[in-house]
Write a structure and sequence with these properties.
Layout: H1 3-11, H2 15-23, E1 27-29, E2 32-33, E3 47-49, E4 52-53, E5 61-66, E6 95-96, E7 104-111, H3 114-121, E8 129-135, H4 141-149, E9 164-169, E10 172-177, H5 184-191, E11 196-204, E12 207-208, E13 218-220, H6 223-229
Parallel strand pairs: 7-11
Antiparallel strand pairs: 1-2, 1-3, 3-4, 5-7, 5-13, 6-7, 8-10, 8-11, 9-10, 11-12
Helix pairs in contact: 1-2
The structure holds uracil (URA).
Uracil binds near residues 101, 104, 183, 184 and 186.
Length: about 230
């Protein structure tokens, strides 16, 4: 994790303020003044601002392998929610950074840090989302070209941003999109005359679903994973 990230999170400062403090020689790492905001910390160093130790507050950052038929919501009267998969003691303030449909599986991020989840999901950050899918029909060259160029979704007047498309098999596709419109992947495929039978999210930005996680399992994000999205 970068030094400026730790200080801005730990002391609730903007990155700009943090860099100013670092340049003003107010920050030390293991007792030595450090003037480089980009210094990489391995973990375990004693970082001080004006002689006061800085540590990350108790926010939680989790990745979960969302199973089928579980709702991406914190409450639902009818179905199990993803929060039901997390122990009660971790649930306080936990919310979802980028929902998935009930019939979509794969990578879901949960956090108690509202600013971080805002950065992950804000249209301005244009964070890539990678999906793998099984389709009802093979994709024609024309369909692939449309997906890559951007398609007009039903009921909208602005085409989707260009997507990266990789053909994985006869009816299998990998799609990388940077927007997060409502049911976007299914609507994009519908717009080109196809249909998504199964949808699975593999990655958000550089954070990939950990293959060690069975459906319904979760783990804490590493500091690098948190930093890469925040
Ligand atoms: N696009 C969809 O259509 N559904 C999802 O769950 C995620 C992206």
């Amino acid at each position: 994790m970068r030094l400026d990230y730790l200080i801005s999170k730990g002391k609730n400062l903007s990155r700009k303020e943090t860099r100013r403090f670092i340049l003003a020689e107010r920050v030390s790492v293991d007792g030595q003044t450090c003037k480089k905001a980009a210094t990489q910390l391995a973990g375990g160093e004693v970082v001080c601002l004006d002689g006061e130790p800085v540590s990350l507050p108790g926010d939680r950052y989790l990745m979960l392998n969302k199973p089928l038929d579980v709702v991406s919501a914190t409450r639902d009267d009818e179905h199990a929610t993803v929060l039901d998969l997390v122990p009660r003691e971790l649930r306080r303030d936990l919310h979802i950074a980028g929902r998935l449909d009930r019939d979509t599986t794969g990578l879901l991020l949960l956090t108690s840090d509202g600013q971080w989840s805002h950065r992950v999901t804000s249209p301005r950050s244009q964070c890539d989302k990678t999906y793998r899918m099984e389709l009802a029909e093979p994709c024609t060259a024309a369909m692939l070209a449309q997906l890559r160029a951007g398609v007009l979704l039903k009921g909208e007047n602005k085409p989707t941003a260009p997507a990266q498309v990789e053909v994985l098999g006869d009816r299998q596709l990998r799609l990388v999109i940077s927007e997060g419109r409502y049911h976007q992947v299914k609507r994009m495929l519908a717009a080109v005359g196809n249909h998504v039978n199964n949808l699975h999210r593999e990655a958000i930005g550089a954070v990939h679903l950990d293959p060690a996680l069975a459906p319904g399992e979760f783990r804490a994000l590493t500091l690098d994973e948190i930093d890469s999205l925040g």
